[in-house]
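Why does residue order matter? Because the sequence determines the fold. Keep that principle in mind as you read this record.
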Amino acid sequence: MTSSTATTSTAPSRHAQVPASVPQDAVDRIVAAALAEDAPWGDITSELLVPEEARTTAVLTAREPGVFCGERVIEAAFRLTSPETAVQFLIRDGESFEAGTVLAEISGPARAVLTGERVALNLAQRLSGIATLTAAFVARTAGTTARITDTRKTTPGLRILERHAVRCGGGYNHRFSLSDAVMAKDNHLALLAAGGTDLAQALATAKARLPHTVHFEVEVDRLDQIEAALAGGADTVLLDNFDPADLRRGVELIGGRALTEASGNVRLETVAQIAATGVDLISAGALTHSVRALDLGLDLR
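Structure:
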């Protein structure tokens, strides 16, 4: 049986509350697909060179500082390769670490450890990169009321894992999919305008058809669209690609009648200035769509 234990290190700091768990079946499905892609007919190198009875222990080590995310995918990568592997985590999802920190120890059949290595690293490096970048965004907005959130600009098939990584970095999740909430974006509004429809009336008519539990968000790219969005019943007004001065003015015009969200041109260099305008939410596609994988290594002892 695979063992997966975790003990809190004395050094790392936590960047989030204990993150909501990703369902095990979702983790296993993603990892199994990755293993099937990487070794569709087995690992012929390991099977050729490594005796079947050989056993080994490997350590997962950080080669640069960051925030960890990857417990579930690492455990699954080795368990699904061989149920005889055991993984012991020395750090938890959401905790920070320095270069040189040992994050986990993996022991079991040598062939299985070698076969599961790349899938475990690929996923953990990406997820830890997302958690690390998110934590940097959150740190830049400390002292403000703004929440850092992700977007749907995720890797196809990995969204559930990447959103978990955002939470590990102290961020929050936006809508998971197109089915979760109404978000009337610029293209929707352009189609309404092309048909000569009054925007406020069109939005109000649409909202009246929704269950009361469904969130209603409207994107605007000009200050003069705000009143129509509010009259149409927007729960959140997304201020898209506004400069800081117009963001501040937009927050004042909305005046607490809806949540305010800033999006567009959100980078580490700009996020503090955006947060200082008083917006409630800052959504950043950069958290997931172009993040750099963190440098982690797996070495056999």
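The chain has a mean pLDDT of 93.
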